[in-house]
Amino acid sequence: MSMISNTTGHHAAVAQHHDYTADLVSQLVALAEQTGNVAQQLKDGHSAMGSVLEESMNNLLNEPAPTQ
Questions:
Q1: CA–CA dist 51, 67 (Å, integer)
Q2: HSE on the CB side for 65, CA within 13 Å?
């Protein structure tokens, strides 16, 4: 095998590896964005749950005691 064809093959392999790496990085970025969105949704949901629970507790505490 000549040096020129060997170098060309190496350059093609490097270019292919670069494309693969760039694709992998873009997938990781997308995954990180999705993870951030899910984390925010969980935080929002937890906050909303806390508000509902707090309101329910206040309603219970403010109810007049049942008379017997």
A1: 29
A2: 2
Q: Which residue has the tokens 């949704």?
A: 41
Locate 11 and state its tokens: 């350059």
User: Per-residue confidence of the chain (68 residues) as pLDDT tens digits?
Assistant: 566 677 888 888 888 888 999 999 999 999 999 999 999 999 998 899 989 899 999 998 998 877 77
C-alpha span between 53 and 49 (Å, rounded): 6
Q: How is 1-38 classified by DSSP, letter by letter?
A: --HHHHHHHHHHHHHHHHHHHHHHHHHHHHHHHHHHHH
Instruction: Return the structure tokens found at 60.
Output: 């219970």
Q: Measured between alpha carbons, how far is 54 from 60 in angstroms, rounded to an integer?
A: 10
